[in-house]
Structure formats: structure tokens, C-alpha cells
């Protein structure tokens, strides 16, 4: 994964980081399985990233019932796969990224 692709490089940066972080568990897989696994890892990372935003966390603080689900669509079989990484409230967000943690120190 190299080269220069302009704005795409910015988007690919997180994918490269995921690949590097999980390289040892991916290397032994066939390329097609690596691609599928990387899609799953990326979706899980994006669920966590979205749930770390102030907008979503403040909605949870206001009592809004919002759940973020991590699903992938299989191009080869047309099936939606639930990655079992649903986050439905602030208490499920890692403490380091919770805005209520920051507000307590004010």
C-alpha cells in the first residue's frame, strides 16, 4: 500500500494503521480473506470512532436512544453480517474517550 493518491491517502491512513496493527493475524490468510477481515476491522474501528464524537455522546447524555451497529455486506454472497460491536450508550464507550470523564474534572 504505497504511492500518492491525494485525498484518498488521508482515508487510507486509518486502513493502513489497522493493517499494520493486525498484520500478524492477517498474513497467513489468503488475499480474499485478508480483504474481508480488513473490511470487518475497519467497520469496528469506525463504530468506535463514531461513538467517541461529542455529538453522539451528548445525545446519549440527553437520553436519546441511539445505537451504532457494525455490519458488513458480503459482495460474494449478498449477506449482511453483524459484527457484534453495537454500542448503545455512553457507558459502553472506552473511559478515555468519554466526554463525561472530561466534564467531571471541570
TrEMBL record:
<keyword id="KW-0479">Metal-binding</keyword>
<keyword id="KW-0862">Zinc</keyword>
<dbReference type="InterPro" id="IPR001765">
    <property type="entry name" value="Carbonic_anhydrase"/>
</dbReference>
<dbReference type="InterPro" id="IPR036874">
    <property type="entry name" value="Carbonic_anhydrase_sf"/>
</dbReference>
<protein>
    <recommendedName>
        <fullName>carbonic anhydrase</fullName>
        <ecNumber>4.2.1.1</ecNumber>
    </recommendedName>
</protein>
<comment type="similarity">
    <text>Belongs to the beta-class carbonic anhydrase family.</text>
</comment>
<dbReference type="Pfam" id="PF00484">
    <property type="entry name" value="Pro_CA"/>
</dbReference>
<keyword id="KW-0456">Lyase</keyword>
